[in-house]
């Protein structure tokens, strides 16, 4: 039996300018552009192997050791796109094995516990698309492949790149211009660090897709966010990254996290992702920055209560020291759930 294989990894990315809202649900086309920092391969990542063989009887996916369904429209859309690109390669070179016609076996593992409460769909779809693209020896670049990962999960398109990444929303109805691009590689700003504070590992209240749909349909503030706030912030944040301007980057990151949670609260019925501990973290970071006289730490929160704190390596002792000191005093923040993962982004 001949089996063709390839293996790839894709790290988790954490948005600093949030994606929240779809203008097309099936294609995962967003209502605004977004920016993120991709963690390093050594931190939180998905490792995926893809195999194709004429002897396989069906497509199969094992996720963290368990057999999973490949029936979701999102996964099917990714596989169909990848097979179409491979078919084009095969039709240009008749000597190539017809991998596009073979079934696939896919094995995917996360190196972080599901209990960490961190979204894994971004790294998962990015690793899936990378592994199959590699197996198929596709000539497309990462931005092209990001359009396929986007169909799996919007934020997945950003995990195709390391470092600082922008997802350009695009304007076309077919989504051909809605893709990820590199703003700067990790090496551009190697002293940037991210600490992930696991506040709760409970399953999140409102799933992202449902939450976004509700916000788009019901929030008036959301219109202001996507038309007035984000377009300007998108340009300013890219500039701050290129200039390695932590103060501006940090301020924009915190403001955008707050803006995202504000439109969640403005949805009807309201969506709550932050809890009391999250709010204490926000206050603490502001207090720390105030005492320093300038911004040395910036928080951001996704669709859940866990915090990601960005800081420059030079301030590590100050930032982490403050967080540890404070949270040792918070009731309910015991050893079980106070696992602060210090994930450097270099
Ligand atoms: C982000 N989030 O930019 C934002 C910030 C959550 C808050 O992308 O429906 O899992 O698969 O496109 O990508 C989470 O949404 O949603 C997300 P789908 P996804 O990272």
UniProtKB/TrEMBL annotation:
Keywords on record: ATP-binding, Lipid biosynthesis, Lipid metabolism, Lyase, Nucleotide-binding, Steroid biosynthesis, Steroid metabolism, Sterol biosynthesis, Sterol metabolism
Keyword Transmembrane helix recorded: no
Catalytic reaction equation(s): (R)-5-diphosphomevalonate + ATP = isopentenyl diphosphate + ADP + phosphate + CO2
Domain of life: Eukaryota
Gene Ontology biological-process entries: ergosterol biosynthetic process; isopentenyl diphosphate biosynthetic process, mevalonate pathway
Family classification: Belongs to the diphosphomevalonate decarboxylase family.
GO molecular function: ATP binding; diphosphomevalonate decarboxylase activity
Domain Mvd1 C-terminal: 195-346
Diphosphomevalonate decarboxylase-like N-terminal domain boundaries: 10-178
GO annotations of cellular component type: cytosol
The EC number(s) this enzyme carries: 4.1.1.33
Protein name: Diphosphomevalonate decarboxylase
Organism field: Suhomyces tanzawaensis NRRL Y-17324
InterPro entries in the cross-refs: GHMP_kinase_C_sf, Mev_decarb, Mev_diP_decarb, MVD-like_N, Mvd1_C, Ribosomal_Su5_D2-typ_SF, Ribsml_uS5_D2-typ_fold_subgr
Pfam families: MDD_C (PF18376), MVD-like_N (PF22700)
Metabolic or biological pathway: Isoprenoid biosynthesis; isopentenyl diphosphate biosynthesis via mevalonate pathway; isopentenyl diphosphate from (R)-mevalonate: step 3/3
